[in-house]
Amino acid sequence: MSKLSEILRGQSYGVVFTPVNTVLAITAFFFLYYLKQRFFGPLRHLPGPWWSHYTQFPDTLHTFSGNRSLYIHSLHEKYGDTLRLGPNTVGVTGQEGVKTIFGGGSKRPFHKEPVITEMLNFGRTFEETMAGTADPVSSSKRRMMYGNAYSRGSVLNMQDIYQKCFMNFIARIEESRKNSQDGIIGVTPYFRAMAYDVLTEAAFGGLCKGTEYGTDAVGIMDNVMNANLFQWYFGTFIYNLTMKIPWKKLDWIRSKEEYLQATQEVVSVYQSNVKAHPDRVRKDLLGNLILNNLDPKKLYHEAYGNIWAGTDTTTNTLGVLMLAIVRHPRIYKNLVAELDRAFPPGEYVPFAPMELQKLETECPYLTCCIKECLRRYPLIPGPSPRIVPKEGTNINGWFVPGNATIFAQTYTTNHNAKIFPNPKMYIPERWQAGKETAEMKAMMTSFGSGPRICAGENLAMMELHCATALLFRNYVVSIPDGYDNDHVEFWITTPKGGSIFLRIEPREV
Ligand code: HEM
Fold it and tell me: What pTM value is reported for the model?
């Protein structure tokens, strides 16, 4: 008998690996693990389901079922504001938790969790982007480079450019409505093309247009994302080899390189313009990053990251907003009456641009509908996890040790019944002037909070205002029979079949 088989059979130690011994060894292992976690686990003192001492698997199952945030919310309802979700994972809610984790006003905001930063850097296939930087101090340096690209002032300054995007958008909707049966349209691709247009204008001078080239341009973004995933899973060597296979069906893998090449070309044109006329550079994201001398490679990865961060987020929020309004006839009626007052029949030219500032001042109910949609149906409802600094932290009267993963998920903060009574009801009126409180603002984390708050909030709010007003002022919108328009949550909320379907009928304007 060889030495190896002797060792495997345990003879050199006088132990024989019989089935009984193996079962005993496994049982002993699990028993010791049970004792260790139950009595010495770092989060043993926190409230939570029994399994969370040992595993986070039930949470993972819900992640894959697409209903994670609702599941975590149900656990918070059972266990309170502080919840052990896994052997090293804590969920918290309440104002103290939100402030501590998101770091509003704190000198030591928590770092983003590695799984999240890896995802936001497209699985390390990209240079580190602002969103994918763990450390808030480094990410704030990149944020400084953004300058005023997405500031409110810039969003207002670039209104003429953005209004062209909305005009293209409504023209595409009209075209599609005319060609459709009974006015039923899968609207999500059009919302996406619009968001994509606005983003490319804001990020890098309108590189290509989603609404002008149909949805193909948006499809390129999906291909780039899939190519990133491929490279992440199989590694750069296999990715490079696969790219060389001359098979048409693999064109999607090559699209990433094409995209990066196209972006590089735009960057070079920009760079020459900056050199020639630094005073005339458009103050969009790319212009600002070039002026701040960001390394070109980082630069186009940052631009792509922004397009990704700002396309489906706005698209799907717009879809959910449409549904929320249409499903509440009283709210629908109030909104349309307000739009008709601001843009009266006879004065308003059908499909004409609707300026943001006019909408904000003359249509406050529209703003309330949008804010309430963001609260009730947040696009990223689940955890945006952070890491507790090594000295640990105190939250809600509990000590959470260093290096634990911690989060305050948006669905739960947004549904805090003490701050938002009847939290599961869609009530735009709660945001009316004089009713909105400081607590409501602090606990509504749909765009995040603190130093890592969404960089594109102003842009997103502008899109939600202009696109919603255009649609409801020019059309009668309804949900066709047989279309339930369900959504599923895979980090961001997405329509189940890829699109929501609405009936869009002409309206006497
Ligand atoms: C309704 C639309 C949007 C929603 C609901 C949304 C939501 C969010 C949330 C919740 C975060 C913070 C995540 C965290 O704390 O880990 C975030 C971050 C970010 N968002 Fe948005 N977003 C939207 C639109 C946009 C747009 C239009 C842009 C681009 C212009 C954008 C760019 C970013 C960036 C760059 C970050 C990373 C910030 C950082 O890590 O410091 N978002 N967004």
Answer: 0.89
